[in-house]
Write a structure and sequence with these properties.
The chain has 123 residues and is mainly α. 63% of the residues lie in helices and 8% in strands. It has helices at residues 2-22, 33-52, 58-63, 76-91, 95-102, 109-114, and strands at 65-69, 116-120.
């Protein structure tokens, strides 16, 4: 997750530089909902693209973890469900992540709702 935070941070910084540049150097007002939604959308797009085309984000690739689903390629809707549910899991003090401790297949809320799961692959 830490590796992906660096990728997401770089994307957000790039978008911010672009947005400020398009505004002629004027700062973006604090709390601008449209800009916050743009950043959130770009974060989802990073994960969705990585999961859909290759099954791995940069962080997952580094650790040999691959996202697998019940279909050959996870759908855009599936990526959105996984992304939103992961955020909700984190917001409730990680409850959705802690579920993996007790689930027989070690699945989290976002695994269960998106019908996907993580596999560790070597080589």
């Amino acid at each position: 997750m830490l590796y992906d935070c660096f990728a997401v941070l770089a994307i957000m910084m790039g978008l911010t530089i672009l947005a400020v540049g398009l505004r002629g150097g004027q700062p973006i007002a604090s709390g601008t909902i449209s800009f916050q939604l743009l950043l959130l959308f770009s974060n989802w797009l990073y994960f969705a693209y990585c999961w859909r085309f290759g099954g791995q984000t940069l962080g997952m690739r580094a650790w040999g973890v691959h996202l697998t689903g019940s279909t050959a390629k996870i759908s855009w809707t599936g990526t959105l469900v996984r992304y939103v549910t992961a955020w909700l899991s984190a917001v409730v003090i990680g409850a959705g992540f802690w579920t993996a401790i007790w689930h027989p297949a070690r699945l989290t809320w976002h695994d269960l709702l998106s019908n996907t799961w993580l596999e560790h692959r070597t080589g």
